């Protein structure tokens, strides 16, 4: 399936968001399976290092039996449960939608580098909100976030280094809420222009001119008749419903599969559908302009000798991309249909009872990994007289961690443009 960008900004086209954090469905499933296997194999190695002569688990007199990993569905439900809490707490604390969206994306991305068997998703959730307030310039004190969750201030900041490293320091998230706001404004401007008998307004200064390879964008479809005649109140109601649809999409895998403008278009279509209004012509406008922008980017890439980019970071085959370029509206419709399905999944609320079993299994694994690491690192019970050598090793490990934290903080300050405290 072609996953062409829908009029994304040039910033997004070259962003780490697009290049590193968008997946195909198959690759996403494969990555999650791989992560669990890495954790299981890591525990076995740690246990073997702690006592190479000890037989495998299975006897009551030997080390504890290795429990089964958290089920893939259990993991996804548990992560979604905590992402629901991010939405609720951000609204409760009156944070902008961009903070909430960024915090959810951080949580999703972190758990594509680690699993709940290694890190507590509840603790990562709290730190993700704190980090998002700094990145999105809506700084909220750790003490205030701690109070909202009734936890210690230390717990808010304790996972910062791990979160930064898990995100590969890719802190910029392109918000689908900003994209939705822009599309809604474009729709309203088009209604005004059509009512006044004027040509449709240009969406952005970067849109191709009629002389460019995207000249087809000059012949945009007429606005849908129901949009022209709909009262402004209905448009406003549909727009509010679109924001609700976008909230649901964020709780699915959609942000890991599609770009922000595609999420916004799917949410807009869903919002108007709830009000009984279909908007295929307006969506065709968006698709036509996106196709023209893609053609322009590819022409520029051919001109400077660089390889053309693949939209939204997904690997695309030439035939599918060519077909999409020939009929961008049909390609967009197929993508929006997929997003409708994901939105339905996201809209289903996960209750705490559904994640108790997975939460308990993940906690058991975290405890096992902690115990295995402690035993493999020396100095554990029954290891004999390690003496000064063990003490020195532990001290060196502490210093290394301290240096890593300082480096991570410095990198964060550099990325955020904040002065460092001396």
UniProtKB/TrEMBL annotation:
Residue intervals of the Cyclin-like domain: 84-165
Q: Where is the composition biased (Gly residues)?
A: 376-389
Q: Which organism is it from?
A: Pleodorina starrii
Gene name, Swiss-Prot/TrEMBL: PLEST009317
The record's listing under SUPFAM superfamilies reads: Cyclin-like
| Compositionally biased spans, kind Basic and acidic residues | 391-402
The answer, when asked if Ubl conjugation is one of the entry's keywords, is: no
* Protein name listed in UniProt: Cyclin-like domain-containing protein
According to the UniProt entry, its GO molecular function terms are: cyclin-dependent protein serine/threonine kinase regulator activity
Q: Which UniProt keywords apply?
A: Cyclin
Family annotation (SMART domains): CYCLIN
The similarity annotation says: Belongs to the cyclin family.
């Amino acid at each position: 399936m072609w996953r062409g960008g829908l009029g994304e900004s040039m910033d997004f086209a070259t962003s780490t968001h697009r290049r590193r954090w968008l997946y195909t469905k198959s690759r996403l499933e494969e990555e999650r399976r791989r992560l669990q296997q890495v954790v299981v194999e890591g525990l076995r190695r740690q246990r073997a290092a702690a006592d190479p002569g000890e037989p495998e688990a299975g006897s009551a007199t030997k080390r504890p039996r290795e429990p089964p990993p958290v089920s893939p569905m259990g993991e996804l439900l548990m992560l979604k449960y905590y992402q629901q809490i991010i939405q609720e707490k951000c609204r409760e604390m009156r944070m902008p939608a961009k903070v909430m969206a960024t915090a959810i994306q951080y949580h999703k991305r972190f758990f594509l580098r680690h699993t709940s068997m290694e890190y507590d998703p509840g603790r990562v959730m709290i730190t993700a909100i704190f980090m998002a307030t700094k990145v999105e310039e809506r700084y909220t004190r750790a003490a205030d976030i701690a109070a909202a969750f009734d936890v210690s201030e230390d717990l808010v900041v304790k996972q910062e280094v791990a979160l930064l490293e898990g995100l590969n320091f890719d802190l910029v998230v392109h918000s689908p809420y900003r994209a939705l706001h822009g599309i809604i404004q474009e729709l309203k401007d088009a209604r005004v222009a059509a009512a006044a008998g004027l040509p449709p307004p240009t969406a952005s200064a970067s849109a191709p001119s009629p002389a460019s390879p995207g000249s087809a964008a000059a012949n945009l479809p007429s606005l849908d008749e129901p949009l022209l005649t709909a009262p402004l109140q209905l448009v406003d109601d549909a727009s509010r419903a679109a924001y609700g649809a976008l909230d649901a999409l964020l709780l699915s895998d959609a942000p890991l599969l599609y770009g922000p403008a595609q999420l916004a278009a799917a949410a807009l279509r869903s919002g108007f559908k709830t009000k009984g209004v279909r908007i295929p012509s307006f969506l065709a406008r968006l698709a036509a302009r996106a196709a023209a922008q893609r053609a322009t980017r590819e022409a520029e890439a051919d001109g400077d000798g660089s390889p053309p980019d693949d939209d939204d970071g997904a690997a695309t085959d030439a035939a599918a991309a060519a077909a999409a370029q020939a009929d961008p509206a049909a390609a967009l419709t197929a993508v929006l249909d997929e997003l409708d399905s994901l939105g339905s999944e996201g809209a289903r609320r996960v209750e705490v009872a559904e994640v108790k079993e997975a939460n308990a299994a993940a906690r058991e694994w975290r405890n096992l990994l902690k115990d295995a690491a402690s035993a493999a690192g020396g100095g554990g019970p029954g290891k004999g007289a390690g003496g000064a050598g063990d003490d020195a090793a532990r001290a060196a490990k502490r210093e290394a961690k301290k240096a890593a934290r300082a480096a991570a903080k410095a990198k964060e300050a550099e990325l955020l443009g904040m002065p460092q405290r001396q």
